[in-house]
Amino acid sequence: MGSIPEVSIIKGLNRDYSTQSRLHRIFETNLNSSDCGNKPAVIFCDPTNGDQNLTHNQLNQSANQLASVLIHRINTCEVEPNQDGDWIIAVCMPPSDKLIVTLLAILKTGAAYLPIDVTFPKSRIDHILQESKPAFVIYDGNIIDRSHFDSSIASSYDECKALSINYDDANISDARRLQSSDGGHLALVLYTSGSTGVPKGVRLPHAVLMNRLQWQWETFPFSSTESVGVFKTALTFVDSISEIWAPLLTQRAVLVIPKCITKDPTLLVSMLQKYEIERLVLVPTLLKSLLIYLSLKRDANLLNKLKLWICSGETLPTSLAMEFYDYFPENEYLLCNFFGSTEIMGDVTYFTCRGKDQLRNYTNVPIGYPIFNTIIYILIDDKKPVKIGETGELFVSGANLAHGYVNGRDKDRFIENILAVDPKYSRMYRTGDYASVQKGGVIHYEGRTDSQIKIRGHRVDLSEIEKHINEIDGVKKGIILCYHAGQMDQAVLAFVSVDHTSLLHELQIEQILRNKMPDYMTPQVILIDHVPLLVNGKVDRQTLLKLYENTNNNNDPAPAIDYDYSGVSANEMQKTRIFFETIGQVIGRSTRTTISLQSNFYELGGNSLNSIYTVAKLRDCGYSIDITNFISAKNLREALEYITEIDTNLDRNLVPVKADFVAYSLSEVYREETIRIIAHSFLEKAELEQQIKPHITEEAYVVLINDSWQPLIETAFSFVIADKKNRIVGVSLSFDANNEPECNLDGPHGVIFEFLETLEAPVKDRLPHDKPIMHSFMMGTHETLNAQENIVAMTFMESEVIRLAREKGCCGILTTNTNALTQQLARDVFGYETLSDTQINTFVFNGRKPFGNAPDDYRAMVQWKKL
Q1: Nearest CA-CA partner of 268 in 224, 315, 231, 313
Q2: Rounded distance, CA 790 to CA 678, Å?
Q3: CB-neighbour burial class of residue 298 (10 A; exposed 0-12, middle 13-18, buried 19+)
Q4: What residue ranges define each of the domains in the chain, with the CATH number in brackets?
Q5: CB–CB of 228/219 below 8 Å?
Q6: What is the Cα–Cα distance from 121 to 143, expressed in whole angstroms?
Q7: Are strands 88-92 and 112-115 parallel, antiparallel or unpaired?
Q8: Are the CB atoms for 21 and 184 separated by under 8 Å?
Q9: Could you tell me which residues come within 8 angstroms of residue 208 by beta carbon, excluding any fewer than 6 positions away?
Q10: How far apart are CA 803 and CA 652, in angstroms?
């Protein structure tokens, strides 16, 4: 960093980056100059249809065709650029492979993309469209109704995709692109919360994105083994830019993870583990959630390849960073704290931590040092730099600055830099953040100058919430405050007084606000009789916060919460009391209403983070519930059905499985469905099969099942399951281990059968043989089941295996599991004993290791349940 200046002006390193390149042109150049065309570019974890993959060539070709459709539609509609001279195409789609195609296509047209979250209320969507005036809107017709948009300039993705087959897949020439007055510099527009109570759009050019990306590639380069990056952040959030384009523009793949997986630690960790992800961007609250989950699992191999953790969007407490290094080894894993906002491309300073010694003198982790081509100024009101150690307002100058706001709003945020010598630093952005420069030139965040806060990484202006709440009929006065701003227990509160004739209550007001704002902005509403005032007539904010604090005392182990045990049977009362009181202790401060069987955990005030706390505390009390089941339960009654008492002798009688399915004995009528489900499940999801693709095909399963069909029928240990619509959605195939048919080791399954036989043969020799032994060897589910439905179906089938084995007089059940889910179900839920635990990639067959490329944490467990 050079010598530390006397005043708080900190300059990042100069880099002569080529920032004139357009993102889509870099992507196209890579295809022409390398062999990445057939490598994966997009992997979408579709909970319904399984993983959807696109190569770089397929992505480019689909984007070219879609871009041609968009250009044609815009030209046909004869629309013009907006008053800023920008061509904008709005996109309202959830995360998917289709979304990535759409974003690349929009850039190829010469336009900028404007993300609109599919969960936004219609009023917010209307404001964004009316102000930004996009030339076209493309949306997901399966989620968003056409009435949200002017149909003359809007189409669903499927409609556009159907038209795209009429166009060739060549790259879009400059002559065909939409021509703007500035040469098409704009890459995207992101809307943020506004200080006037109205959201405002930030205009981000390609050059700004390229400065940020090139700094990242040089400072935190991808490793030689890092082939996949993660896109899990909302598209409306600035961090999504680097998540998507950093891997794609370096010839890597981007793994698209939908929200339903992101909010469930079990599913998220499994996905990160499966694709051997090496870096992750996340807010501190999600980091906290993952650390709690990892401590519960007690598996040192989980996320052991994820070496770079990047926190941004919220203050990072030192205590949380210390917890990180309680789990991960120091000096091997990097924990970074990035600072910035949408107006400065998300990140302009960074702090890299390698261990606890760097953190001991800090309450919060510093925001660090400027990135390349950036100057940070800490100034006082008259734009004079403060001395080292003093606090002032943080200003940013350099290559990361946006080109202002849509329609030129809030010009006072982007101002002339009177301190600049170099013309490239002639503008500066006023962040509204307080900061200081401490010993060593490191920058510390010191809070906000205004009413803005960060919620889940999104910047929110409290005045916007206040504006909406005071517009509600029946509300006399609404005051919005933030309790413990920037801390892990941060809470946005709305203290509301209503007309004496009004029948409004807290939850009703919250629902009205949800129809006007995104969910993450909705405050907890607290009704008050009158607004307390100071002697000068201003609102007494501290009294209101004390009212909240005293009513919901975090230090009280049993907050004053109403519990309603109506409908709870006597034999369930102890478990229910522990369950309800655990929830009360975890979310007592924000509990909205009485806790009862009908309550929904999230409507009570729960969230993803404290859901993990709840599961952890329940375990401490001697009760267990799968995290996924708890998160997805419709109400506490449903969650209660999944809670079991922790018992080392746990068996099926203590495993509650909802009767969502019915089992039918295997018969000829189910042959076709059995083959299809088993073939898809094992070909697409089984760990062993993934390692020997493409040598194993669907035809191999057809031959295998047909060859085994008659013995399966005769043994009568196998079954299918049907859902409530009587659709076959699961198959379980089993033999008697004492009388199994011979397997053909010459076929494509040979290496797999040889591996399984190597593991199982020594175990079988030790088992009793005076009674039948059910050998559960194949279990699969229908590809249309989402992640939660799949777990429920698998749990039901595992329970049915135990029931059937008892019915048939078996002495026990033998199974070999290579899937983490079935291993967990067998061990933690159904009480199987693990007799053999083998690292898959160590197996040698005919002088080679057929599974040698499998990760070290892929295990094969031979498990046994004595009956």
Answers
A1: 231
A2: 14
A3: exposed
A4: 54-184 (3.40.50.980), 461-546 (3.30.300.30), 570-646 (1.10.1200.10), 662-866 (3.40.630.30)
A5: no
A6: 13
A7: parallel
A8: no
A9: 19, 187, 345, 399, 400, 401, 402, 403
A10: 8
pLDDT of residue 39: 95
Scanning the structure block, which residue is given the tokens 């943080």? 394
Beta-strand ranges (E) seen in 84-185 are: 88-92, 112-115, 136-139, 154-156
Cα-to-chain-centroid distance, residue 247: 17
Omega of the bond leading into 694 within 30 degrees of 0 (cis): yes
Question: Tell me, what amino acid is at 822?
Answer: T
pLDDT at position 266: 85
Phi, psi of 673 (to 5 degrees): -65, -40
Task: Please provide the DSSP assignment of 596-655 as one string.
Answer: -TT--TTTTT--HHHHHHHHHHHHHTTEE--HHHHHH-SSHHHHHHH-EE--TT--GGG-
User: How many other C-beta atoms are found inside a 10 Å radius of the C-beta of residue 448?
Assistant: 20
Structural element, H or E, at residue 591: none
Identity (one letter) of the amino acid at 53? N
E strand spans, 440-556: 442-448, 452-455, 458-461, 475-483, 491-498, 524-527
Nearest CA to 349 out of 13, 694, 677 is that of 13
CB 778 within 8 A of CB 634: no
Nearest to 527 by CA among 562, 496, 555, 551: 496
Residue 351 contacts residue 369 (beta carbons within 8 Å): yes
pLDDT at 225: 96
The residue behind tokens 């809107």 is 137
- Using a cut of 0.85, tell me whether the model's pTM lies above it: no
User: Do residues 442 and 369 touch, judged by C-beta distance below 8 A?
Assistant: yes
Instruction: Return the closest-CA partner of residue 236 out of 458, 407, 452, 486.
Output: 458
Look at the block and give the residue holding tokens 């039918």: 664
Q: What is the pLDDT of residues 740-790, one digit of tens each?
A: 877 655 565 678 878 888 888 888 888 887 889 999 988 989 888 765 577
Token pair listed for 653: 């009688």
What pLDDT, on a 0 to 100 scale, did the predictor assign at position 556? 42
Confidence (pLDDT) at 656:
45
> Which segments in the chain show pLDDT lower than 50?
1-5, 553-559, 648-657
The rounded distance, in Å, linking the Cα atoms of 200 and 409 is 8
Task: Quote the CA–CA distance of 694 and 685 in Å, as a whole number.
Answer: 14
Which residues are within 8 A (CB) of 616 and not within 5 positions of it... i.e. 6 or more apart? 292, 295, 296
Q: What pLDDT, on a 0 to 100 scale, did the predictor assign at position 652?
A: 37
Q: What is the dihedral of CA 193, 379, 448, 512, to 10 degrees?
A: -20
Q: How many CA atoms lie within 13 A of 162 on its CB side?
A: 4
Cα–Cα distance for residue pair 425/415, rounded to 1 Å:
11
What's the pLDDT at 597? 92
Given the DSSP bridges, would you call strands 859-866 and 833-839 parallel, antiparallel or unpaired?
Answer: antiparallel
